[in-house]
Amino acid sequence: MGHLSLPSKRNPKQWKLLDLVSAAFFGLVVLFLFLVFTPFGDSLAASGRQALLLSSSDPRQRHRLVELIEAGQHPQPIEACSAEEVDHMPCEDPRRNSQLSREMNFYRERQCPIPDETPLCLIPPPNGYRVPVRWPDSLHKIWHANMPHNKIAERKGHQGWMKEDGEYFIFPGGGTMFPEGAIPYIEKLGQYIPIRNGGLRTALDMGCGVASWGGYLMKEGLLPLSFAPRDSHKSQIQFALERGIPAFVAMLGTRRLPFPAFSFDLVHCSRCLIPFTAYNATYFIEVDRLLRPGGYLVISGPPVQWAKQDKEWADLQGVARALCYELIAVDGNTVIWKKPSGDSCLPSQNEFGLHLCDESVDPSSAWYYKLEKCVTPQSSIKGKYDVGGIPSWPDRLNKAPARAALMKSGIDLFEADTRRWARRVAYYKNSLNVKLGTPAVRNVMDMNAFFGGFAAALASDPVWVMNVVPARKPITLDVIFDRGLIGVYHDWCEPFSTYPRTYDLIHVSGIESLVKAPGSGKNRCSLVDLMVEMDRILRPEGTVVIRDSPEAIERVARIANAVRWTATIHEKEQESHGSQKILVATKNFWTLTSASH
C-alpha cells in the first residue's frame, strides 16, 4: 500500500521571506488601486506627463505625449517653460549656434533644432508684462517691462535710438547715421528719390537697429520690412516689432535672404556694416537680386566717404559701375544709386569677375538656398515688374501682376482670390467680431498667404501683414511683392525667425496642409508643435483665426485647450463653397505665477 507524502515543515526563515513577498505584492495592488481611482492618482499622472513634456531625453515619450494632446486625452495644459526662456528663439539660440563656423557669419544664420530635441512647453511673458501700447503711440513709446533690456538705450541713447523714461522706453526717432531723427533724413533722401508719388512701395531696411527709419517711412505710403540678426544688441528686432514696425530676424551670411527676385523697390542700409564687396561682391549681388529694376539702393555710413576706408569705398563704387547702376547722389556719407532696366550693360570683363547666372539658377528660390556668385539676369523672369512698368500704389494692389500669369490660369486665380478674401474679411469683422480694424490689432501674420488676398483686404486698416508663403508650396511670393505687400518664405515644420509675443493676430487657411508632405498627405511634423510655435509668437490676449475642414478644425480645437487658448468654432460665410469651418481663439494672458496653480 502506498504512502501519502506530506510536505515537510518550513523553517522560520522561509516563512519570514514568504510573508515579506506577499506583503509587498498586496501593497503594490493597494497602491495601484489608489492611483487609479483617486484624484491624487490623476494629479500624479498628470504631473508625470508634464515632466515628460519638458523632457527631450526620449523621443518616444515625446511622440506619445504629442499623440495624447492631439487625441484630447491630455487633461492638463502644456506646462510653461522656465523664466529664462521668455525671449527664446529656437533657431537663433546662441547657446546652440556659438560653436558653429564664423565664416561668412554662418553661426548667426538660422540653425534650427529638430522637434525631438526641443522641450514641449509654452513661453511665458516676463514679469510685469502688459498688453502692448497701441499703434500709433507705440511708434514713440513702449512698456519697459515688456522687454527690460537696457543695453541699446545705454549704448545708443546719445544717437537718438531710444531712452528709458520711467515705465516706458521712448524712441526719439534717431539712428546712428541720422541722430537728428528719421524725418529729416527721409526728407533728405526725398530730394533724390521720388518717395511720395506712389511709384515706390516696398522697402528693405538691412541692419535696421530699432527700425525708426521704417517706422517713419510708412507715413510716406511706403511699406518697409526691416531685418537684423540677433547680435550684440540682442533685441533690436524685438523693439521694432513691439513698436508695430514690420521686421524679422535674419542674417545676410551664406544663404539668400528668404525673398524672391526683384521684390523691393527700395533697399536701404544705414550703417548696416554689410561687407558688400567681400567674397567677390557676393553680398552686393544678393542685394541686386532683391532690388527691382528701376529701384533705388541707399547706403549710409561706412565705407561711403569714410575715414581710412578709401579702398572699400572705391571697391563699392567699382561694383556699382560694373552692374551699370546710375549714381544719383553722394551726400556726405550717403550714396544713392538707381538700378538699370535690362541686362545689356554688364561688361564681359570686370575686376570682380561678375557674370550672369545661367538658366539652371532659379532667381526666386530662397529657402536655405546658398548665395550665388553670379548676377541674376532680368530676362530670367518674363513680364513687366520694373519700377514704372507696374502700376503705382495703390493701383497695383488689386491689379493682377504679370508674374501671376506665369502660373496656369494665374490671372483668373488672382482675381477670384482677391474677391474671395474681401468677402471673408468682411465676415470676420461683421459676424465673427474679429478685432481687425481696431486699435487692438497692429501686427498681423498670414501663415499660408498664396497671393496675399487676405492682406489686400486689410489694406485700409491700420495694420501690416507678414505674408508667409510655405517653402514647399507654389512660389507666389513674387506676386505678393508686385502688388505692394511684403512677406517671406518659410517652412512651418520649423520655428519662425521672430521673438516671442510679436503678433496681435495670426491667420491661417488650411493649417493641416502646412504640416503635410505635398502629394503623399503624410505628416512631416506635428500639428501640436506648430500650434506651440504659434503660441510663442502670439501676444497675450492675441487672436488666432484658423479655417480648414471640419475634421481638421476639430483636431485644432483639442490642441487649443492644451496651449491655453479659449476657442470657438463657427460656420463659414454662406458665399464660400466647400465644407470649411472657422476657429477663432484668444490666447489667455497667463503668467508663470498663475500657471503654477
TrEMBL record:
Membrane-crossing segments per the record: 20-40
Entry EC no(s): 2.1.1.-
Biological process, per Gene Ontology: methylation
GO CC field: endosome; membrane; trans-Golgi network
Keyword terms, alphabetized: Glycoprotein, Membrane, Methyltransferase, Signal-anchor, Transferase, Transmembrane, Transmembrane helix
Domain of life per record: Eukaryota
Gene3D superfamilies: Vaccinia Virus protein VP39 (3.40.50.150)
Subcellular location: Endomembrane system; Membrane
GO terms, molecular function: S-adenosylmethionine-dependent methyltransferase activity
Membrane topology: Single-pass membrane protein; Single-pass type II membrane protein
Family that this chain belongs to: Belongs to the methyltransferase superfamily.
Designated name of the protein: Methyltransferase
Native species: Linum tenue
Classification of source organism: Eukaryota, Viridiplantae, Streptophyta, Embryophyta, Tracheophyta
